[in-house]
């Protein structure tokens, strides 16, 4: 109910925060989150705009959101998992990767780190 009130007040950020607190097995949470309509491609476009304005801190916030959601929503992609000593199969260039904007976000993060002269971070990415 609180999330619906926040949504009605056009407070989308806090509505999303409340919806994300629903239990994992609560179907209402999935439905309400879908209504809030998160689009990774839109988040990437906003990050790219910040990058072009050289506002790297804001761009990195959107990139972090894309990556965090990719990890949370698609564990099958094994994003961010420690794989030392474990054989990991390639996920290939799937439609799912495209829809999550993960590749684009990681490439943009590497470009930002390169521009900031963080060479060690770029090599790690």
UniProtKB/TrEMBL annotation:
Keyword list, A-Z: Cell projection, Cilium, Cilium biogenesis/degradation, Repeat, TPR repeat
Major location (coarse): other
Gene Ontology terms: biological process: intraciliary transport
Gene Ontology MF: a single term: intraciliary transport particle B binding
Residue stretches spanning the membrane: none
GO annotation, cellular component aspect: axonemal microtubule; intraciliary transport particle B
Subcellular location: Cell projection, Cilium
Keyword Repeat: yes
Function: Required for polyglutamylation of axonemal tubulin. Plays a role in anterograde intraflagellar transport (IFT), the process by which cilia precursors are transported from the base of the cilium to the site of their incorporation at the tip.
Family: Belongs to the TTC30/dfy-1/fleer family.
Protein name: Tetratricopeptide repeat protein 30
Record organism: Gongylonema pulchrum
């Amino acid at each position: 109910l609180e999330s619906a009130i926040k949504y009605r007040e056009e407070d989308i950020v806090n509505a999303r925060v409340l919806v994300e607190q629903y239990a994992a097995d609560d179907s209402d949470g999935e439905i309400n989150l879908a209504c809030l309509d998160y689009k990774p491609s839109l988040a990437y476009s906003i990050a790219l705009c910040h990058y072009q304005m050289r506002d790297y801190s804001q761009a990195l916030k959107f990139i972090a959101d894309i990556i965090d959601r990719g990890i949370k929503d698609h564990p099958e992609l094994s994003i961010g998992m420690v794989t030392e000593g474990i054989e990991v199969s390639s996920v290939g260039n799937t439609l799912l990767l495209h829809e999550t904007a993960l590749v684009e976000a990681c490439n943009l993060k590497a470009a930002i780190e390169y521009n900031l002269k963080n060479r060690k971070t770029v090599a790690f990415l």
